[in-house]
Design goal:
- The protein has 159 residues and is an alpha+beta fold.
- The chain has one domain: Chemotaxis protein chec, CATH 3.40.1550.10.
- It has three helices and seven strands, in the order αβββααββββ.
- Strands 1, 2, 3, 4, 5, 6 and 7 form a seven-stranded antiparallel beta sheet that branches.
- Strand 6 and strand 7 form a beta hairpin.
- The longest helix is centred in the middle third of the chain and has 23 residues.
Length: 159
């Protein structure tokens, strides 16, 4: 795993969380709670194509998703699940857009629409390989961002 890509992913995720959602994170993985494992996270995945083809995914704790959404929208109250999914998808878009220049500063990319689902999901492309991952923690919960690239030696363009 490239340390520079890991730093780019970590930095882009932290920056997006702070500037977009006013959530402050720390590097690393939180210790497991004595109450047992955390509930399944929501995962937002954004695919991209261009100089390279791949995806970026963010696993985000279900418990903090309403907080993320309320902060992104600037509204009080509990947003509905559709709004929560949209906010997480937008976060993934922002992080992906800020990570791609670390892969190829002069590359041109198009982003697919974010897909958000409950659970930890691999990218839709079965030939994708995870090349970098960054784990952060917010309020004792794990946020994990991963970068997946189409396996080397395979065509870069989507057919």
């Amino acid at each position: 795993m490239s340390e520079s890509l890991q730093l780019a992913i970590s930095g882009a995720t932290q920056s997006a969380l702070e500037t977009t959602a006013f959530l402050f994170s720390e590097p690393g993985t939180p210790e497991e709670s004595p109450d047992g494992p955390a509930p399944e996270p929501f995962t937002a995945t954004v695919t991209f194509d261009g100089a390279h083809r791949g995806a970026l995914s963010i696993e985000f704790p279900a418990r903090l998703l309403p907080v993320l959404t309320a902060n992104v929208l600037g509204e009080e109250g509990t947003p509905d699940e559709s709004m929560q999914r949209d906010a997480l998808g937008e976060l993934a878009n922002i992080v992906c857009g800020n990570v791609l220049p670390a892969i190829d500063a002069h590359g041109r990319y198009s982003l697919g629409p974010p897909a958000v689902a409950l659970g930890t999901l691999p990218p839709a492309d079965p030939d994708a390989v995870r090349v970098a991952r960054a784990d952060l923690q917010i309020e004792g919960e794990r946020v994990s961002t991963a970068l997946w690239l189409h396996a080397p030696g395979t065509p870069a363009g989507i057919s």
